Amino acid sequence: MPKDTSIKSVLIIGSGPIVIGQACEFDYAGSQAARSLREEGIEVILINSNPATIMTDPSMADHIYLKPLTTKSIIEILKAHPNIDAVLPTMGGQTALNLCLEAEEKGIWSDFNVRLIGVDVNAINITEDREQFKQLLERIGIPAAPAKTANSFLKGKEIAQEFGFPLVIRPSFTLGGTGAAFVHKKEDFDNLLTYGLEMSPIHEVLIDKALLGWKEYELELLRDKNDNVVIICSIENMDPMGIHTGDSITVAPAMTLSDTTFQKMRDMAIKMMRSIGNFAGGCNVQFAVSPDEKEDIVAIEINPRVSRSSALASKATGYPIAKIASKLALGYHLDELQNQITKSTSALFEPTLDYVIVKIPRWNFDKFEGADRTLGLQMKSVGEVMGIGRSFQEALHKATQSLEIKRNGLGADGKGYKNYEQIIDKLTHASWDRVFVIYDAIQMGIPLSRIHEITQIDMWFLKQYEELYILEKEISTFKIDTLPKELLLEAKQKGFADRQLAHMMGCVESDVYNKREEMGVKRVYKLVDTCAAEFEAKTPYYYSTFEAEIEKADGTKYVHNESIVSDRKKVVVLGSGPNRIGQGIEFDYSCVHGVLAAAECGYETIMINCNPETVSTDFDTADKLYFEPVFWEHIYDIIRHEKPEGVIVQLGGQTALKLAEKLDRYGIKILGTSYDALDLAEDRGRFSDLLTDLGIPFPQFGIAESADEAVQLAETLDFPLLVRPSYVLGGQGMKIVINKQELEEHVIDLLKSIPGNKLLLDHYLDGAIEAEADAICDGEDVYIIGIMEHIEPCGVHSGDSNATLPPFNLGEFVMQQIKDHTKKIALALKTVGLINIQFAIKDDIVYIIEANPRASRTVPFIAKAYGEPYVNYATKVMLGEKKVKDFTFNPQLKGFAIKQPVFSFSKFPGVNKALGPEMKSTGESILFIDDLKDDQFYELYSRRKMYLSK
Fold it and tell me: Where are the alpha helices (DSSP H) in 763-811?
């Protein structure tokens, strides 16, 4: 049955600002859904309040509403578009589902004659209401953990008495494990039960027996109206039950499951999906399996929507789940749709993987002082990375190299733990760096049986780790000149970086690189093709690996490389790696626009990134996607293979920018602003000299490399002082200190965590107003795309401030200074492309805080508020295709747009919520107001000083 022709117009609900537990994977799903529906000639109306995402870009849908996700907004949209036939709520995470249910309860969908597609309300209710779900599993004969529901404190106490400890408390209708907890001891139960009941919107919790130490698996399913079901991907959590899947290290395909159990699990998943309602779309099912030879299976939960795991499964298999799910929601059958990668097989085809995927989450605990860093049922990570390799070991290494936490992979970098008690403690209380600690434990000689006993991680994974350590020990007995080729090849096949090998043999990275070149141990690129090369794939989506040479009959040797280099002029765009606080989805937005603009200029576009949640790593965004770590060795090999005209670094945040020096040193052309100019803006000494020459004021500052120097400087600079390390992102390590003791403590602390860093001490302009400007410059002309004024005073990080566009109370005299300073600095830095400058205004004098010659967090916000494609323009300027004067700028904004930060403090109870110079927000929303009399503006303004922390 082809599509339902009565559906002509669809409303998609987005997921709102990014919070821990609901990140850019829904932006990716929503973007795919919108494209998929428009391919069918369907009008797409989208509501989402997040300005930083590509999903809310005007090119994505026919009508975009940047409005709060409330039923009031839904009614406004349905009145403005009476032709909307259906709503697709499965692409916006829990936020969209909850909003959809609320609208259903209020009768809004029936009032406007709009139907739900992609899911039915009963399915949401059954899967979200823990009690209903438990009864369903009983009815269809699928085992579940013994559990009971409590909707009062008293009932909860009774259940605990019946089950005994340990227990798990899970609130109904929450996201990312909010409010969920393990209770090991009776004393902790009362508080955790109260918290769980408060966190659930319906004040209900499920209390179940804890399946501690059981293995955890997920399956991603798709089903059509005809009841065809395909299982896209099996995912195994390396961590046992007890750690939220979003915080678990996961592996695809499942590694330690017997075939019989896998088949049983498949049958159960299909039975569960068919029993929760008659709908067509995507579904994610989680299971626990006992770690003995019986392999008992217990169902944990089912989500009738695309999820974080389906973004991972899409990237892992190359099968675009959200895209196909949207078409199934229209009534298509799987066998009528094409596999998007091979273009020759149908979508009713289960992907086969001839490689291994490892996902590792990325945390930001350093932003939440005093946070509980142990991992459990509540998700705490802010992003994730994915590594693709020919073996688990290679994929694991590539994932650890993608994390950007100053590690070069597992071990062999001198940064491991050496203290026995500390290692045992970190293994006992699951820590964020356990992926490295396991290696340290093996290195220390702790037996695998003991590590298994503590962590319950399957012995197969631990043996993989042990093999890596045995190889490291063997290589360490050689020097670079004596290392045999077989060992070098084996180390590279197992994912060891050149830097790690250099560490093992006491030489430098370039020695290892040269040795590889000399011996012919070179990277080859393989296709992600969904079908293990059974059919030809048409989509250029690659990962790297190493292969032994094959010898032909005539004696020539070769390795098989699937990435064919064309003779077109090419440009590489460096992505921003994993999401974190201070560098989020706004850089994905910039990268996607950069790729599209370069394609418009006739370039072949090449994207390098390792974040599975984003649109920039979609298989058809760029002409070629290399799903690889944004890590020097990988990038350099791709550049040598592809020979591009140059590399764009200013769209990928600090991640890409940090690689500029290496690119420059190796003679690789940086497109846009030169490395020297980027360095000049980062080097406070050089930058201040420049400002002095230009006659532009800046707060008095000094540079210190020790606590003594800092205390001496304080004599001349006057407290309060703003202390910050150089070359950091999101205000990491920044603090305002008001006396010598605080200064000394903070400096010692900083130098311990970032050794050898130069610290900057600025005189802090107390009570100043903060503002920022973004501009495009071509080296001759400067166009200011937007000036924003922060509602909070100077001292709250710009990413945590509410900010208005245009400014609301800066006089003409101050505005003129901002414009003049921006133009002078952009030209003096020889900027080609984007630049962001931050200002402090005191007594009508505009001081410069800093300048960043790159895409900033605010560029997507300004582009959405004014309805102008600024990143597209800036990219064309970087490529030298256009000048600023070639564009007709026509910004449209009635009233004001306010950028509002969103925080995820609920994940860290007890953490100090005060704001200061270090960024803590995880996302943002946009609010449009007609004038300053608006109540929402008034409320923001009256609270502006509440949170400032010194």
Answer: none
Q: Describe the strand order of the beta sheet including 803-805 as a list of residue ranges.
A: 845-852, 833-842, 769-777, 782-793, 803-805, 896-902, 923-929
Residue type for position 947: Y
Closest by Cα among 765, 761, 766, 762 to 750 = 761
Where does the pLDDT of residue 533 fall: very low under 50, low under 70, confident under 90, or very high at 90 and above? Answer: low
> What's the CA gap between 321 and 313, in Å, rounded?
8
Which residues have CB under 8 Å from 816's CB, separation 6+? none
Rounded distance between C-alpha atoms, residue 761 and residue 721, angstroms: 6
Integer Cα distance of 11 and 74 in angstroms: 9
**pLDDT, tens digit (0-9, with 9 covering 90-100), for 51-77:** 999 999 999 999 999 999 999 999 999
Q: Are 726 and 717 in contact (CB under 8 A)?
A: no
Output the furthest CA–CA distance in the chain (Å, rounded): 83
**Helix intervals (H) in 585-722:** 586-600, 632-642, 653-657, 660-665, 675-682, 684-694, 707-717
Say if strands 523-527 and 541-546 run parallel, antiparallel, or are unpaired.
Answer: antiparallel
Q: What is the reported pTM? A: 0.93
Task: Report the alpha-carbon distance of residue 151 to residue 138 in Å, rounded.
Answer: 21
State residue 362 phi and psi, 5-degree precision: -120, 125
3 state DSSP class of 211: coil
Spatial CA neighbour of 210 closest among 298, 277, 139, 109? 298
User: Of 261, 262, 235, which is closest to residue 249 (Cα–Cα)?
Assistant: 235
- Is there a contact between 731 and 654 (Cβ–Cβ < 8 Å)? no
| 756 has pLDDT over 60 | yes
- Give which of 619, 554, 114, 91 is closest to 303, Cα–Cα: 91
Given CA atoms 375, 377, 383, 388 in this order, what sign does their dihedral have?
positive
Q: How are the residues of the chain apportioned to helix, strand and coil, as percentages rounded to the nearest 5? A: 35, 20, 40
For the chain, give the percent of residues with pLDDT over 90.
Answer: 67
The letter for the amino acid at 783 is Y
User: Whose CA is closest to 283, among 372, 202, 223, 208?
Assistant: 223
DSSP 904-935: -GGGSTTS---B-SS----EEEEEEESSTT-H
Q: Are 699 and 764 in contact (CB under 8 A)?
A: yes
Could you tell me how many helices (H) and strands (E) the chain has, helices first? 31, 35
Mean pLDDT value across residues 900-904: 92
The full length of the chain comes to 950
Q: List Cβ neighbours of 7 (8 Å cut-off, separation of 6 or more).
A: 42, 85, 86, 117, 330, 331
C-alpha 633/C-alpha 640 separation (Å) is: 11
Give phi and psi for 788, each to the nearest 5.
-120, 140
Separation CA 693–CA 700 (nearest Å): 15
Residue whose token pair is 């930058």:
687
